[in-house]
Design a protein that fits this description.
The protein is mainly α. The chain contains 15 helices and no strands. Helix 7 runs antiparallel to helix 8 and helix 10 packs across helix 15. The N terminus and C terminus are likely disordered.
Length: 397
C-alpha cells in the first residue's frame, strides 16, 4: 500500500491518527468475543448470558449510528468525534471496573453507543480528501477501523492471559482518552456548509433510504454479509474453548490475527471504487464469504482449517464493506454523514441479528447449527451482490 496523500486541511499524519482512533473505537466492541468464557466464570453466569454482551454491543452501535452519527451533518465534526470518543472511554472503564454482569452490560452499552465516533471520522475523511481521492481516504481510515476490530480479539486474549480480562477494558479506556485529546489538537475544524436541524437530519435519513436505490441495495448486502460473519464472532470462543480444541483466551485471541489480512484489502477496494471497478471487488467479497464457511465447518475440530476460514471470511467481508461504503459516500456529497449513518445502521443491525441468531443456533445444534446459519446468510449476501450488479447495468444502459 502506498502512503496516504495529503488533502486540503488533512495531512497524512492526521489521516493515520483518524485511522488509529477508528480502530480503538470500533475494536473496543470486540474485546469480549475471545473472553466470553472468562467473563462468564468471573460473574458466575452461563456462557450464553455472557455472550449476550456481543449482541448488546452491536445493537448499541447501531442505535448510535442512527441517532448520533448523523449529527456530523449538523455539528462541528471534530468536537463531536472527540466528545463521543471520551464517552466511549468512560463505558470501557465501567466494563473494567464492573462488580457484576449488569454493570458490565451497562458499560458495554455505553461503549457501543458512543464508539460511533469512528463513523463521524470516516465521512470527515472523505469530505476533506482531494477530488478523486475520496475512496482512498475512506479506505485508509477504514483500514484502521478494520485492523482495530481484528487485532482487538488478539490483544484482548493476550492481555487477559497476562493481567486478567478486566485489564483489557481499563487499558483501552486510558488509551482512548489520550487519543481523543490528540485528535482535538491535530484535526482541522470541519462542518457541513449547509447544516440542518436535528429533526430534519433524522427525517431526511428515511427519505434518503427511499430515494436512493444504490444505498438500499448496498446496505442490505453488507448487512447480510456482516450477519454471516457475526454468527462466527458470537460462537467461535464457545467452540474453540470447548470441544476437541480446548483453547484458552490467549490462543483464541491470536487466531484473530489470521483475519488481519482482510484489512489489507481495504485501501485496494477503495481504489477500485475510485477507478469505477467496485463491482469486481464486490464479486470477490461475495465469493470469499461463501467459500469460508466449509473451511470453518471443518475447522471446528481442525485448527488449520479454522485459521484459513478466518482469513477468507474477513477478506470477503472487508471487500464488500469497503466497496459499498466508499460507493455510498460518493452518491450525495452534501448528505455524506447521513448516507453513511443509514448504511452503517443497517450494517450493524445485520451484525446484531447475526449474533443473536448465532447464539440461538449454537444452543440448538452447536457448531454445526452455527455454520449452517452462516452459510445461509452468506448465500443471501451473494445473491444480493450479483442482483445489485445487474440492476446497475440496467440503470447505466
Amino acid at each position: 500500500m502506498s502512503s496516504p496523500k495529503s488533502a486540503p486541511g488533512l495531512g497524512a499524519s492526521s489521516l493515520l491518527l483518524m485511522a488509529l482512533a477508528c480502530g480503538l473505537c470500533a475494536g473496543g466492541n470486540y474485546f469480549n468475543q475471545p473472553l466470553l468464557h472468562s467473563i462468564a466464570q468471573h460473574f458466575e453466569v452461563a456462557e450464553s448470558a455472557a455472550a449476550a454482551s456481543v449482541t448488546l454491543a452491536q445493537v448499541a452501535y447501531a442505535c448510535g449510528l442512527l441517532l448520533l452519527a448523523p449529527l456530523g451533518d449538523k455539528l462541528q465534526r471534530r468536537g463531536l468525534a472527540v466528545t463521543l470518543m471520551l464517552l466511549a472511554a468512560l463505558g470501557q472503564a465501567l466494563c473494567g471496573l464492573a462488580g457484576n454482569l449488569n454493570l458490565f452490560l451497562l458499560g458495554t452499552l455505553m461503549a457501543g453507543l458512543f464508539s460511533v465516533a469512528a463513523q463521524v471520522l470516516v465521512p470527515m475523511a472523505a469530505a476533506l480528501a482531494q477530488p478523486g481521492q475520496g475512496g482512498r481516504a475512506v479506505g485508509w481510515v477504514m483500514s484502521g477501523l478494520l485492523l482495530g476490530i481484528l487485532l482487538a480479539r488478539s490483544v484482548a486474549g493476550v492481555v487477559s492471559d497476562t493481567w486478567g480480562w478486566q485489564a483489557v477494558y481499563q487499558g483501552a479506556a486510558l488509551l482512548m482518552a489520550v487519543v481523543a485529546l490528540w485528535l482535538w489538537k491535530a484535526l482541522p475544524a470541519s462542518r457541513n456548509p449547509s447544516p440542518t436541524s436535528y429533526p430534519q437530519v433524522l427525517g431526511s435519513m428515511w427519505q434518503l433510504l427511499r430515494s436512493q436505490p444504490g444505498l438500499r441495495q448496498r446496505t442490505l448486502v453488507s448487512a447480510l454479509a456482516f450477519a454471516s460473519c457475526s454468527v462466527l464472532f458470537s460462537t467461535m470462543a464457545l467452540q474453540l474453548s470447548s470441544g476437541p480444541l480446548g483453547l484458552d483466551d490467549g490462543q483464541i485471541g491470536l487466531i484473530g490475527l489470521a483475519g488481519a489480512a482482510g484489512a489489507l484489502v481495504a485501501t485496494q477496494a477503495g481504489r477500485l471504487v475510485d477507478k469505477g471497478l467496485g463491482r469486481i471487488s464486490c464479486a470477490i467479497g461475495a465469493l470469499a464469504l461463501l467459500l469460508s464457511w466449509p473451511m470453518l465447518w471443518w475447522g471446528g475440530a481442525h485448527l488449520g482449517w479454522f485459521v484459513l476460514g478466518m482469513v477468507v471470511i474477513d477478506l470477503g467481508l472487508q471487500c464488500l464493506n469497503i466497496t459499498n461504503q466508499a460507493t455510498v459516500a460518493q452518491l450525495l456529497p452534501a448528505a455524506r454523514g447521513r448516507m453513511n449513518a443509514v448504511y452503517m445502521t443497517g450494517y450493524f443491525t445485520g451484525a446484531a441479528a447475526g449474533s443473536a441468531l448465532g447464539t440461538l443456533a449454537w444452543r440448538i445444534d452447536g457448531w454445526q447449527g452455527a455454520c449452517t446459519l452462516g452459510v445461509a446468510l452468506a448465500v443471501m449476501a451473494g445473491l444480493g451482490t450479483f442482483s445489485m450488479r445487474k440492476t446497475h447495468r440496467l440503470q447505466a444502459a
